[in-house]
């Protein structure tokens, strides 16, 4: 079992994340699964390295975009736990997940990747449909101490419900203020469209990473981040009184009225 090759930030090691937590895009990736994987590099790629990855594995049942409501097929349609139809996430031996990724690393420090994947379902409900995910990622270090990133990821038929779609994008900038302190800023936008919900939630991350050993920066560090919400942050923006946490993966706290509020995160991390 290993990570499926979908998601640039998702396939970044936890000890190398720019912010304390994976956030809004994580629910759309295919997570980890058991199967057959192929990784390699194409020869004669000019001034850079052309990489590829292929995977065929069990259904992506660990993915937040695949595991649906009650987790059982409901051929008659809706259920209390899943108004769009409780469509099971697939059965090993009958369904599978698949993914492909192409990447290109230039010597100048520019990296780009594109990926596509999916997870099938054998559910016979009218609303049931295979999940599909696709995205693009860019990363660059244009000057010493400067890191720029951007990623867009879209998911169709989320939780195997036909027409339930979601996409997430973020832009990121980091700058080494000193050899041991990095300032970071990242903005997320998550849009959900399905049923009676058509809403967008944003997160702006303002943070700092303190590397306790600058010669080995990912050995021990302290990460601080202030996460500021924007967009459709209230339960009243969504149907059935459900707040944004029901439709967008987020690291935000919510008050008693289910309104997203500014959240502070702090983390100490050590790698052994």
List the helices and strands and how they pair.
Layout: E1 2-3, E2 32-33, E3 35-42, E4 48-57, E5 97-106, E6 111-119, E7 131-140, E8 146-156, E9 165-178, E10 181-194, E11 197-211, E12 220-231, E13 253-254, E14 260-261, E15 263-270
Antiparallel strand pairs: 1-2, 3-4, 4-5, 5-6, 6-7, 7-8, 8-9, 9-10, 10-11, 11-12, 12-15, 13-14
Structure notes:
The structure is a single chain. By secondary structure, this protein is mostly beta strands. 0% of the residues lie in helices and 47% in strands. The strands form 3 sheets. An 11-stranded antiparallel beta sheet has the order 3-4-5-6-7-8-9-10-11-12-15, with no helix packed on it. A two-stranded antiparallel ribbon has the order 1-2.
Structural class: mainly beta
* Low-confidence blocks of residues: none
**Count of DSSP strands:** 15
Major β-sheet annotation: 11 strands, antiparallel
Order of helices and strands: EEEEEEEEEEEEEEE
Which range does the strand content fall in?
Answer: over 45%
Number of helices: 0
What overall form do the CA principal axes indicate? globular
- Helical coverage, percent range: under 10%
Give the N-terminus to C-terminus distance in angstroms.
22 Å
Largest sheet: spatial strand order: 3-4-5-6-7-8-9-10-11-12-15
Mean pLDDT: 90
Q: Give me the Rg, rounded.
A: 20 Å
């Amino acid at each position: 079992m290993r990570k499926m090759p979908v998601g640039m930030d998702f396939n970044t090691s936890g000890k190398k994340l720019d912010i304390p937590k994976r956030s809004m895009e994580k629910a759309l990736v295919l997570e980890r699964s058991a199967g057959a994987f192929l990784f390699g590099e194409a020869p004669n790629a000019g001034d850079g390295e052309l990489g590829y990855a292929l995977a065929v594995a069990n259904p992506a049942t660990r993915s937040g975009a695949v595991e649906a409501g009650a987790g059982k097929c409901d051929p008659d349609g809706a259920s209390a736990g899943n108004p769009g139809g409780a469509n099971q996430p697939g059965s090993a031996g009958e369904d599978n997940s698949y993914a492909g990724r192409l990447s290109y690393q230039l010597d100048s420090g520019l990296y780009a990747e594109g990926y596509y994947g999916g997870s099938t379902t054998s559910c016979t409900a009218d609303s049931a449909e295979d999940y599909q995910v696709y995205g693009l990622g860019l990363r660059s270090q244009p000057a010493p101490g400067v890191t720029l990133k951007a990623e867009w990821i879209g998911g169709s038929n989320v939780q195997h419900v036909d027409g339930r779609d979601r996409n997430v994008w973020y832009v990121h900038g980091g700058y080494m203020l000193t050899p041991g302190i990095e300032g970071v800023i990242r903005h997320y936008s998550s849009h959900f469209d399905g049923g009676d919900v058509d809403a967008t939630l944003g997160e702006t991350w303002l943070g700092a990473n303190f590397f306790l050993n600058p010669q080995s920066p990912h050995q021990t560090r302290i990460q601080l981040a202030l996460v500021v919400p924007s967009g459709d942050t209230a339960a009243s923006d969504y149907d059935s009184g459900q707040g944004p946490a029901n439709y967008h993966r987020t690291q935000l706290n919510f008050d008693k009225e289910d309104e997203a509020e500014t959240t502070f995160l702090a983390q100490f991390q050590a790698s052994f």
